[in-house]
Amino acid sequence: MPYAVIRVAKIKTQAHALSATGHNYRQEQHPHSIGNADKEAPHPNREYVNHEKKDYWSLLEARIQEAGVRRVRSDSVRGMEVILTGSPEGFVRGQDGRAADYSKSKWAQDNLNFLKEQFGAKNIVSFTLHQDEKTPHIHAVLAPITDKNTLSADQLFNPKSLRQLQTEYAQAMAPHGFERGVEHSQAKHDPMQRLYGLEAQHAQRVAELTRPQVPAPAFQLTDPPLLGRDEWKAGEEARINAELARQAEAARAQLAQVAKLAQANTAAAEQVRVLQKQLSTSEGLKQGHFGALQTAQQEEVILSRDYDRTAVQYAQGADLPELKQYGQQVREETRQALVSTLEQTLAKPVKDAADFQAKLKAAGYHAERDEQSKGTILVHEQTGARFKTAEIQPNGQFIGPQLTAAIERTAQQALKQSKGQSRGGGIGM
């Protein structure tokens, strides 16, 4: 059975956070943007939380401030990057070897829900699905804020809690056909890129060491003297033996380096094999079930069905349960994403209703009037999914009162700021 694997890494500095931002959002100008990403990948990368793709450091600092964490040391770990993945045999690929599009899959949504339940929805500042490498994978960034409102990566991510996290993650992924890896495994989990880099360096060095050497110059004997031939013979033999010994030692040293590199390569290759098996890597992810489909056969029907053929079948009254099921799943995922967008928007300054609608428009939604109920319907522009306000209750409450409260809060904050500036009497230098 394929493995479910989760890995974590600390984000300690602003430089580290910016590097991770550049990598995960494929910023070409960033020195850490990944070089082996497929620029012609058939399926898009997707950000589920940080839609504006702000840098991680700013997001983490904002979340820590919002949570009201009192003590933040200069060396405190501000964030954790979590890699969510599974081994290759658990997922479906097309005939061309490429993975299917998982950007709207239930697997991805279940991963997001898992992190929210584990660490709190507000602490998840980014959740990114990559589909432009050999296998899809998820990078999530979160603020390690405890239930007691303290910033403590050591409390949330220690050896004991990490083992428990692995177990609970595998349990959450069991419906998708994944299981937990071997507990207390002694395998060292290095990033796949580092192993491949070492392997390439070793291969280059082995090639240099095994390159044919320039033949050693032939031995030149000195002319034997007329007297003292025995001493001359002994001296020449010692000289020749010393040179042969030097060459033999050089050859042994060269062979020792080759053996050492070969052994390192073997260890690296074994680690790569284990990493590929368990996908204990920041670049491994594949989805075993697509959307709400329960079998690969159902998925294949969805992926291979021609649009025109489907339309004709529908027009002729054909029952398409798997298509309906998939559509319902996409709609539910879109609804959950809309709720999250509304919660984030209402938490920010909102000047008026027009400003609120503009923010929703920027996030990919717009409002329409429902002629039947005379109410408002929010429409997702990409999928066309339509939602009545009763279906989307951010923070478990209706939108109207929360929007009114957000507008009033913004006005009060602006008034306080204006009064503060007036009392200041000028600009300090």
Automatic annotation (TrEMBL):
It holds the Pfam family Mob_Pre. Residues 24-43 are annotated as: Disordered. Residues 25-43 have a biased composition (Basic and acidic residues). It comes from the Bacteria. InterPro entries: Mob_Pre. This is Plasmid recombination enzyme.
